């Protein structure tokens, strides 16, 4: 279920590996729709890590809700599940095969956190800035444009073309169906 695609997107799902890939595609499509393509990789990584945590740790069930909210200069992505236990940011050893998910979320996001909801569960969220500051440009004098005639084109040499040279490399598909 997707609601209000302009500023808010909500997806309810079971945090199973096959569904996590679908949610990544939904997140990517929604960010393209909002013209936030530069955020796609970081948002997809963050939501993947949060959903993987639900899949691996949440009890009693794997049902969760992913929500994206676009405010003026910030995208907030959150995952709500029904497990009241709060996640812990761990220091993984170099040879550990898991335990780095929240550290990666922290590394790619502007901020992250957890909102407990008593015995009803919790919401883990992260934010991404939607704009980057423009690089400072050196001050320039205003450009004055005057109305001058366009420069004349001068023929430098004759070039001959065959009909094959002028044909497009790929002709558009045509239909024999009228209408």
From TrEMBL:
Alphabetically, the GO molecular function entries are: ATP binding
Q: What is the designated name of this protein?
A: ATP-binding protein
Species of provenance: Streptomyces thermocoprophilus
**Annotated InterPro entries:** Anti-sigma-factor_SerPK, HATPase_C_sf, HATPase_dom
PANTHER family for the chain: ANTI-SIGMA-F FACTOR RSBW (PTHR35526:SF3), ANTI-SIGMA-F FACTOR RSBW-RELATED (PTHR35526)
Instruction: Tell me which residues make up the Histidine kinase/HSP90-like ATPase domain.
Output: 14-127
Q: Which domain of life is it from?
A: Bacteria
Q: Does the keyword ATP-binding apply?
A: yes
Keyword annotations: ATP-binding, Kinase, Nucleotide-binding, Serine/threonine-protein kinase, Transferase
Whether Kinase counts among this entry's keywords is: yes
